Amino acid sequence: TTQGHFNRNLRGIRGRAYDGVPGPGHTYAIDSTIGDIHLRSRICPAWIVGRPIVYVVVDVWSTAVVGFYACLEGPAWRDAKLALFSTLCDPALLGDLCGYEPIQTLWPSPQQPYRLRCDRGEYLSAAAKETGLALRLNLEFAPPRRPDWKGTVEVLHRIMKDEQYLFLPGAIDARRKELELRRDAKESALNLREYVQYLHGFFAHYNLYADRSHRMTAEMIAAGVDPTPAGLWRFGHDAGLAFGQAVSPQLLFTSLLAQGQAVVRRDGVFWESSEYEADVALRQQWTAQARNFGAREQGVHFFPGSTSRFWWANPDG
Q1: Are the C-beta atoms of 255 and 135 separated by less than 8 Å?
Q2: Range 1-10, long-range pairs (CB < 8 A, 24+ positions)
Q3: CA-to-CA distance for 96 and 272, rounded, in angstroms?
Q4: pLDDT in tens, 194-203
Q5: How many angstroms separate the CA atoms of 205 and 50, rounded?
Q6: Where residue 226 falls among pLDDT bands split at 50, 70, 90?
Q7: Entry pTM
């Protein structure tokens, strides 16, 4: 066999993924996969929009899922940035954008890690380097063809797909090569937002109930730590082992969200053919200026999948 195949699958295990990681929040692992499910359009349920791309962000020390993002495009760095935004932003804001009631299983909430472990795909790019410099985030790249370097998140992909196969309409088992064992896409019933709601509940259940008894030390047992990813996360923070770097919401919006152009006209502020209102637009009389000096464009930042709002960076602070 090849050396790479031997190192991945045949050699003896010489360590753990959390070796060299002092505590929760220090190292996150991120990876994307193609969701084994066919989805329908929210606009017209008769349209089958295909299989989603799912990004999962996992804390290496506690194995807790700290964030995820599902989309219909990519994989690309612009989507990986949105997965980081979903990890670091306010859970209440994310729930409002995605249309679900947030279940906070990790306390305190995840913050920016010291190191982000990833592969050499869309993360090895000039755009990723620029974002890392802006957020002071260290990117750690795995060698080529070595998914076992971030095995924690790879296993989460398998657990997620196995769990949904028997319960979600339209779910498939892509590992089966026989065509007759594949489920028909016409069995699909969920749209992307409903699938995101399912993933949120699944990862919350995983954080609260996955068995991590093998990680328990005498100190953890004496402290009565719950042997789950959420329990390890809480213990690490209470024991002073955790790392977390707070990032201002303004920096998150400008560094991680997608960019677009809103148009200020005499009859209102419009983005993607929808009209928006804001207190700052009234105070600065945007529409009155557009009436006297003509329409103008404003660079804005937005979260794909939600047209409820966008963010504008005020040059006056």
Answers
A1: yes
A2: 4/145, 4/146, 7/146, 7/148, 8/145, 8/146, 8/147, 8/148
A3: 20
A4: 999 999 999 9
A5: 26
A6: very high
A7: 0.90
The CA dihedral of 53, 80, 241, 89, to the nearest 10 degrees, is -100
Q: Which two tokens stand for residue 255?
A: 């560094």
Per the listing, tokens 């200020």 go with 264
Structure tokens at 114: 């010291």
Q: Which of 66, 48, 41, 42 is nearest to 56 (CA)?
A: 66
CA distance 25 to 66: 9
pLDDT tens-digit readout, 163-204: 898 888 888 887 765 544 556 667 888 999 999 999 999 999
Q: CA 174 to CA 165: how far, in whole Å? A: 10
Laid out side by side, the sheet with 27-34 consists of 65-71, 53-59, 27-34, 115-118, 138-141
Q: CB under 8 Å to 176, separation ≥6 — which residues?
A: 182
User: How big is the CA angle at 27 (ends 22 and 33), to the nearest 5 degrees?
Assistant: 145
The owner of tokens 């692992």 is: 29
